[in-house]
Amino acid sequence: MPHIIKTVIYLKLFITLTKKSIAAILFAAVIAVVVLSRICSVKAQSQDGSTNAKRVEYINSIGYSVDDTPTVKEITVPQDFSPVYERYNRIQSEAGFDLSAHRGEKALVYGYKTADGEKTVTLIVSDGEIIGGDICSVRIDGEMLPLLKKEK
Fold it and tell me: How many domains does the chain have?
């Protein structure tokens, strides 16, 4: 008889652990789905800047016509943002970008003159992805704007 009680206790312990294991597995699966959906949604919003044609196409999609020969320079996004870089990153956030996620990364900065010569569209590209940029007037008193669709 004690043997049967011992078996029932082991069986109950096994069933309890199995329920806990199943719960843990389901919890992990839900977390994995949430994380993957966030990654996929971030990737869906990313802009391909791997080629000049794709960069110009992106600029056209926000309403600007540019000379397709850019100036290019290499930068490293700083680890620590100065107040000026913090303000610049606020401009980035208006267009859905965040340079703080790319601290310490090397990037290429492409500058495209608009067809009318009045503005420069700048794109910051890291690993083939547009991670930021701006639209800036070439006038001495000009303004810097986020990469948003041009108002008509």
Answer: 2
